[in-house]
Amino acid sequence: MEKKNKKAGPGTVKTGRNVTIKDLAGELGLSITTISRALSGYSDVGEKTRKRVEDAASRLGYRPNRNAQRLVTRRTHNIGWVQPDNERKFLDPHFVEVMAGVLRGARALNYDIVMTSATADHEMATYDRYVKDNSVDGFIVDLPREGDPRIDYLLEADRPFVVHGRESRHPRYGWVDVDNYGNFYRLARLLAANGHRKIAFINGDERFIYAHSRRRAVEDALNDFGIGTGGLRVYNSLHPMGEVGFKLTTEALRDGEVTALLYSSILMAIEGHNAVVRAGRTVEKDIAIATMDDVLHYLDIDHVADSLTFVRSSLQDAGLALVEEISRQCDGHSEPSGTLVPSTFHVLPDWDASSLELPVPEERAGEY
Fold it and tell me: Is 214 exposed, middle or buried (0-12, 13-18, 19+ CB in 10 A)?
């Protein structure tokens, strides 16, 4: 006679092995479908049942089989992030800060980051491969340019993505950005309001929108203030920024009439501060320094903070917001939205800071 299996029930599942959704169903006397829908957060499962399922899953050490989930939901919980094949990018402290925020956000929201590098001629093929094999749920795009082909492709493919930055089509996709125009308009106007007429602006790589927007803001602020741009000198670094602050500041200081230095990065400002001292000039007395501070955690600015005016906005917070935006699109099926990372100004006490209270005009349209 065939021996019948004992009916499963509470306490029959042994811990210490791979617990399956079938085991949970037997343990709780519920169907596999109910267990699956409870763990996936479907609204047709009552709160009491959901709690019972979640408690049992935690007690027994159940971990979902993501490959099996992918077959059912067509979701991977992977986010693709394609980087240029440039080793300097991976040493850039600005990138490291963004990555730290992205990884923290991914961990909190149960995503994995699939990062790869591609040469310029293979970049779009990499995006195409990820889309066609459905190996990621969405993408992070950084350092956009106007008419960026990555944005062209992802809009056409109708895949979730978020851009760190924004170009003229930003109402059509998710983005996270700092107020590049507003921040640098305010910094330039602040310098002008404190009497500076010869200003050296040491900017980033203007092939990218963030740096182009910052330059336009500085020029607009000086024009709107009524002093024009005749006394403005702009010096550009290549991306990534860094290791050029000393060199470009030394070059700027050859003009003995320069009284203010404006920097696109605290990293360049620190190097610039050293160049000012090396040139025998005195920060504050001879030269004013204003800068963007992206909160680079590896960089200790305590020794110069009392001589700098800066606007601070966290790149780690931006990285966290990038993942949150992808999650809203993928998990919540929400329409793409934009996030402006907050900025705070820190002005030296002997400066007149009243101009910061004045409104900033809309960024001039059509000039990306």
Answer: buried
